[in-house]
Amino acid sequence: MASDRDTLPSWAKPSHYVVSLYDLEFGGGFTYQGTTTIDLNIANDSSWNDIVLNAHQLKLYSGELKLGNGSSYEAKNITYDEKRQRATLDFADQIQYSGEALLTVKFQGTINNIMAGFYRSKYKPKGDVPMSVAKDDEFHYMFSTQFESCDARRAFPCFDEPNLKATFDVDIEIPEDQVALSNMPEKETKPSKKSGFKTVAFERTPVMSTYLLAWAIGDFEYVEAFTKRKYDGKNLPVRVYTTRGLKDQGRFALENCHQIVDYFSEVFQIDYPLPKVDLLAVHEFSHGAMENWGLITYRTTAVLFDEKTSADSYRNRVAYVVAHELAHQWFGNLVTMDWWSELWLNEGFATWVGWFAIDHLYPDWNVWGQFVSESVQLAFQFDGLRFSHPIEVPVYDGLEVDQIFDHISYLKGSSVIRMLSAHLGEKVFLQGVADYLKAHQYRNATTNDLWSALSKASGQDVTSFMDFWIRKIGFPVVTITEEPGQIGLRQQRFLLSGDVKPEEDQTVWWIPLGLHTGSSASAASLHKAGALTQKEETVRDVNNSFYQINKNLTGFYRTNYPPDRLIKLGESRHHLNVQDKIGLIGDAYANAVAGYGATPGLLALVESFQDESEYLVWSQILTNIGNVRSVFSSAGDISEGLKKYHLKLVTPAVEKVGWDFKQGEGFLIGQLRAALILSGGLNGHQATVEEAQRRFDLYISGKDKTAIHPSLRKAVFSIAVKYGGESAFDAVQNEFLTTSSIDGKEIALQSLGRVQTPELAQKFLSFIFSDKVAMQDKHSGTIALSNNSKVRLEVWKFVQDHWEDKVYPTLSGNLVVLERFLRFGLNKFAEVQTADEIAAFFKDKDVRGYDKGLAVIDDTIRSHAKYRTRDEGVVREWLGAHGYV
């Protein structure tokens, strides 16, 4: 056993499982019976008397061990280690044996309601439902699985570690009028001994990790397409499964899916390895989706899309999430990380290559602009905290891993992949990836294995310049000083709190400069200076008329320009591309927060962007100015001045973009309209507020259900709730309860968070914790409340007042959900006092499983508090000088 991780005894390894599930209780207790038979390879020179495997919240009835020499043993005692989620089968006798063995365990499990393991999802059906479908007074249920990272052990006893790969045979007893799905196609259906039931058996899986096994049971129907490429002489069937009445909303995902399967088969130079691809919409889902091999499961809003009723932003979401999960079929499933510490190998790569595929399918979406605006900036935000972690992070046991499914593993991981791909060149990079996959298919691999393949493909020592990016915490800021004809560059670790200690600033990163210079922005070209490889360096032959570093924001670092240069770059903005503008604004904001720059520099820069026409640039502006306003919201005069600034900034763009969606209009234009109307209305643009209220009244009264375009529901509902008080709140809450749109509940929750009084905020929080709001959605409304400076304190009050009776009991069954609720709900404060209160509240509680989230909250609040104290005077002065206060 490696000393840095807590793993099962290494001398017993599985090679094959037969998992049989039967006697499922479709009402009341939701229990089931099961038998797991495991082919083991035993390599133990010593005598032994027990076998340890993973089991969590299962009742094991018996264990029988048959050895290859013909002898067999019954488990005389079965004990459980609840904390480590293990069961020990004690055979009493001392056994001296190495070789093949067969372990059969009979057990009972529960189909739970916490979105982990084998669980049930509630929904309200469309159309007639078979009598056998599980239901209560209000909802029907479908059953499905979520095993990543360590929840296969909740469903059946197993060796639940990623490098203990095996093959699986699965058979499930279900009612005759329902459908069962698993990773592989159905092999046969046999009559059951029970009347009205059948047993569905599936083909054997390839060698794979337990966390990728999956099954589902329900009243399912599907839409189907076939790949254009042939695999073993056949076009592969691709299906999107839903509960009855929703299948047509799977057509958009379906159309993307078969094209992406073919595209990745060519890019990775390995054919998709299974005989089918199923996508399943699951009504309650803790994450966005899960890459189970051959049976990919999705939150409904990540796979279903209705051309008539869905907001267009979900078109983008569905396309991307489908691509991300399909990337995992190779990168994660075919080749799996050796241990959870290298989770980034799965998630970082799948994030980057998911966007890569969407760029291929939708070149007009400016995918890399989206990536820079969303993925890179969010990664910066998280990694700028003192309490960040390296991309490759030590994980002692699998139970710690859920907290590293975060912006570092996904977004910093993918940002660093993009940086490396840009440096090596896309073609060379993808060849190295293909070589890596071929070399390690059906096995496990490490970061070093990937670096070796990329080094060989590129002829460069990738390890030497990439290892610090993966194994060291944080990222650098490059500060520039100017002299005639040259610039000085200095790298140091970036911290949002701006107080880097010498011992925290030891890393010297390899930083690709991407330096462009020339007599003007339009005449600039790439400078020969390649990378910054020491703490400080001078670059000569730089034209002071124009220069910029980190062109296209491919390097994962902040740039700190001199104040005058920032103004000049703003003046040259029409010659910069979308990624450059996003980087310029994002860096100016981050440097202001950290104290490398100051807020007036950001405000002056952004003021020049009033005539901006690109949605992605506006998205960055609105996010950053919104954050500044949030931090200074408790200083009345500054808050009012920033509101005036914000309204003046957006007014020309709001009035230009209009309300009407035109035929053939680009996707990004629609996104711009939705963002600007929301921003303008919430900031008091009178014409926008009046038009939103007019349309809201027509829609809610039923006089004209077409009065609100699907993509403008969030904007109109939010404006209505802000200005309409309790009657508007009740109307949007009713919309949540009655909507048939797949994204309707999410949009309603986000809008309800715009309430303006403590009473309505508490009413909303009570509603969130009622059984009307599914556990997967409870954080959606809280995000909006925490972003709302008028009532964000109510979230913290609610957590304190209802921790014991509502918050913890409701969310603690799935710590991923609890951590997300707290982190999103409490990280927007900017007062040290609040950070102290939160720390004191959780001091004596068992915070395992959400402790990292609490550290992020604490670090973020204290960084914002330092920023507010440091810049309050200069912001007030700037706003006064420019007529805003």
Automatic annotation (TrEMBL):
<keyword id="KW-0482">Metalloprotease</keyword>
<dbReference type="GO" id="GO:0016020">
    <property type="term" value="C:membrane"/>
</dbReference>
<dbReference type="InterPro" id="IPR014782">
    <property type="entry name" value="Peptidase_M1_dom"/>
</dbReference>
<dbReference type="Pfam" id="PF01433">
    <property type="entry name" value="Peptidase_M1"/>
</dbReference>
<feature type="binding site">
    <location>
        <position position="347"/>
    </location>
    <ligand>
        <name>Zn(2+)</name>
    </ligand>
</feature>
<feature type="domain" description="Aminopeptidase N-like N-terminal">
    <location>
        <begin position="14"/>
        <end position="212"/>
    </location>
</feature>
<dbReference type="Pfam" id="PF17900">
    <property type="entry name" value="Peptidase_M1_N"/>
</dbReference>
<feature type="domain" description="ERAP1-like C-terminal">
    <location>
        <begin position="546"/>
        <end position="862"/>
    </location>
</feature>
<protein>
    <recommendedName>
        <fullName>Aminopeptidase</fullName>
        <ecNumber>3.4.11.-</ecNumber>
    </recommendedName>
</protein>
<dbReference type="Pfam" id="PF11838">
    <property type="entry name" value="ERAP1_C"/>
</dbReference>
<keyword id="KW-0862">Zinc</keyword>
<dbReference type="InterPro" id="IPR042097">
    <property type="entry name" value="Aminopeptidase_N-like_N_sf"/>
</dbReference>
<dbReference type="InterPro" id="IPR050344">
    <property type="entry name" value="Peptidase_M1_aminopeptidases"/>
</dbReference>
<comment type="similarity">
    <text>Belongs to the peptidase M1 family.</text>
</comment>
<dbReference type="InterPro" id="IPR045357">
    <property type="entry name" value="Aminopeptidase_N-like_N"/>
</dbReference>
<dbReference type="GO" id="GO:0006508">
    <property type="term" value="P:proteolysis"/>
</dbReference>
<feature type="binding site">
    <location>
        <position position="328"/>
    </location>
    <ligand>
        <name>Zn(2+)</name>
    </ligand>
</feature>
<dbReference type="GO" id="GO:0070006">
    <property type="term" value="F:metalloaminopeptidase activity"/>
</dbReference>
<keyword id="KW-0031">Aminopeptidase</keyword>
<dbReference type="GO" id="GO:0043171">
    <property type="term" value="P:peptide catabolic process"/>
</dbReference>
<keyword id="KW-0479">Metal-binding</keyword>
<feature type="domain" description="Peptidase M1 membrane alanine aminopeptidase">
    <location>
        <begin position="252"/>
        <end position="469"/>
    </location>
</feature>
<dbReference type="InterPro" id="IPR024571">
    <property type="entry name" value="ERAP1-like_C_dom"/>
</dbReference>
<dbReference type="InterPro" id="IPR001930">
    <property type="entry name" value="Peptidase_M1"/>
</dbReference>
<feature type="binding site">
    <location>
        <position position="324"/>
    </location>
    <ligand>
        <name>Zn(2+)</name>
    </ligand>
</feature>
<feature type="site" description="Transition state stabilizer">
    <location>
        <position position="410"/>
    </location>
</feature>
<feature type="active site" description="Proton acceptor">
    <location>
        <position position="325"/>
    </location>
</feature>
<keyword id="KW-0378">Hydrolase</keyword>
<dbReference type="GO" id="GO:0005737">
    <property type="term" value="C:cytoplasm"/>
</dbReference>
<dbReference type="GO" id="GO:0042277">
    <property type="term" value="F:peptide binding"/>
</dbReference>
<keyword id="KW-0645">Protease</keyword>
<dbReference type="InterPro" id="IPR034016">
    <property type="entry name" value="M1_APN-typ"/>
</dbReference>
<dbReference type="GO" id="GO:0008270">
    <property type="term" value="F:zinc ion binding"/>
</dbReference>
<dbReference type="InterPro" id="IPR027268">
    <property type="entry name" value="Peptidase_M4/M1_CTD_sf"/>
</dbReference>
